[in-house]
Amino acid sequence: MRDAHILTRIGALAVGVMLLIAAAPEGDKRSFGIWSNPSGSVHVRAEPCGKRMCGVVVQANDKAKADAARGGTPNLIGQRLFRDFQPAGEGVWRGKVFVPDIAKTFSGTISVIDDTHLEGKGCLLGNIGCRSQIWTRVAD
């Protein structure tokens, strides 16, 4: 009888966990779309990657391409800059940011400011050596 009670409790716990997973936030859909960096030199398409978000370069000017090539990234177009971003609260995503000019990946946060602006922030380690940029939505 005790084993049946334990199995019932495990089953109830499993159902509870499945309900929590199903109710987990999918992230702010306003994050998806095409975004321009502050100088307009790079456009990134933020899109779902399963339950995560990724961002792929869809347009870059010649200077951005040359800077990336000098940094060790010969093909900037198609490069995934935002990697494995997961929802981390209302309008906030956390993941990894690839910086093609230096071919390095850092921890990053993307926060929705409004329907047309995002703040991207990347840090070397923890909250040390952080930089942020405001990105603007580009009409699809």
Tell me what the structure shows.
The chain has 140 residues and is of the alpha+beta class. It has two helices and eight strands; from the N terminus they run H-E-E-E-H-E-E-E-E-E. The chain has helices at 2-23, 62-70, and strands spanning 33-36, 42-49, 52-60, 80-87, 92-99, 104-114, 117-123, 131-138. It has an eight-stranded antiparallel β-barrel with strand order 1-2-3-4-5-6-7-8.
Structure, briefly:
The protein is an alpha+beta fold and 140 residues long.
Topology readout:
Elements: H1 2-23, E1 33-36, E2 42-49, E3 52-60, H2 62-70, E4 80-87, E5 92-99, E6 104-114, E7 117-123, E8 131-138
Antiparallel strand pairs: 1-2, 1-8, 2-3, 3-4, 4-5, 5-6, 6-7, 7-8
Major beta sheet summary? 8 strands, antiparallel, barrel
Order of helices and strands: HEEEHEEEEE
Strand content: over 45%
List unreliable stretches of 5+ residues.
Answer: 2-25
What's the total number of strands?
A: 8
Q: Give the spatial strand order of the biggest sheet.
A: 1-2-3-4-5-6-7-8
Q: What structural class results from the helix and strand content?
A: alpha+beta
The CA-CA distance between the termini, in Å, is 62 Å
Q: Assign a percent range to the helix content.
A: 10-25%
Radius of gyration: 19 Å
Number of helices: 2
Query: Looking at the structure, what is the overall shape?
Result: globular
The overall average pLDDT, rounded, is 82
